[in-house]
Amino acid sequence: MLLVSQVMLWVAVVALAVAVLALARQVGVLHERIAPVGALALGRGPQTGEAAPQLTVHALAGNPIEIGGARPGAQLRLLFFVAPTCPICKSLMPTVKAFAQSEQLDLLFVGDGDLDQQRQMAERHDLAPDRFVNAPEAGRAFQVAKLPYAVLVNELGIIAAQGLVNSREHLESLVSAHELGMRSVQEYLAKRASSSV
Predict the structure, then answer these.
(1) What is the pLDDT along the chain (197 residues), one digit of tens a residue?
(2) What is the DSSP letter of 133?
(3) 11 shares its domain with 92
(4) Which residues contact 145 (CB under 8 A, 6 or more apart)?
(5) How many domains does the chain have?
């Protein structure tokens, strides 16, 4: 009886090992098939590759800031559109700040709404008042309908990449799309798929 139970246990262990190996293989196959998802570019407003709208806006500190237009030798500028009523915006702010610093981007937070609420949000999240603008006209010019939204503008004043962002990966996809010379990560993946067929 003891011998039979030992044999059955070993058969069960071998069967489980085979099942685990089969599952690991399937996870690998699924991982290869699932493409990375980048920031979702909306089809409204100025498109990637076009000139960014030129605006003069004022930061919470009172200093004027030019959006759009050529800035020779300047860093890529990341416009991050936020609102005090957007919970995802608030949770993403520390990530955006760290990302902009690591990628050496000129970060500008763009709000739209009550000035006191914008000031409170900037203070609560330790955002520099000279890098935060309350400019509804910027949201209208870029036709931002959903938040949080990010726009990457190059030194020539051209929109390098843009899209709805919910994570650091989405922010990274904007920089990756710019480096690849593509409008979005989805465009890159579509070209790669069509060239491999």
Answers:
(1) 888 889 999 999 999 999 999 999 998 877 666 555 555 566 678 998 999 999 999 999 999 999 999 998 889 999 999 999 999 999 999 999 999 999 999 999 999 888 899 999 999 999 999 999 999 999 999 999 889 999 999 999 999 999 889 999 889 989 988 887 776 656 655 666 666 65
(2) E
(3) no
(4) 42, 44
(5) 2
Across the beta sheet with 77-82, the strand order is: 132-134, 106-111, 77-82, 149-153, 159-164
Asked whether residue 39 is assigned to any structural domain, the reply reads no
Look-up of token digits 């700040």 = 97
Residue 152's alpha-carbon distances to 5, 6, 34, 120, 196, in angstroms, are 66, 64, 26, 26, 30
In a domain, 24, yes or no: yes
Taking the CB of residue 181, how many other CB atoms lie within 10 A of it? 10
Let me know if residue 180 belongs to a domain: yes
**Could you list the residue range(s) of the whole structural domain that residue 171 is in?**
55-196
Q: Per DSSP, what are the bridge partners of residue 65?
A: 57
CB atoms within 10 A of CB 23: 10
Residues 27 and 111 in one domain: no
* 50 occurs within a structural domain: no
What CATH number is associated with residue 94? 3.40.30.10
Torsion-angle region of residue 177: left (phi > 0), alpha (psi -120 to 50) or beta? Answer: alpha
Q: Is 53 left (phi over 0), alpha (psi -120 to 50) or beta?
A: beta
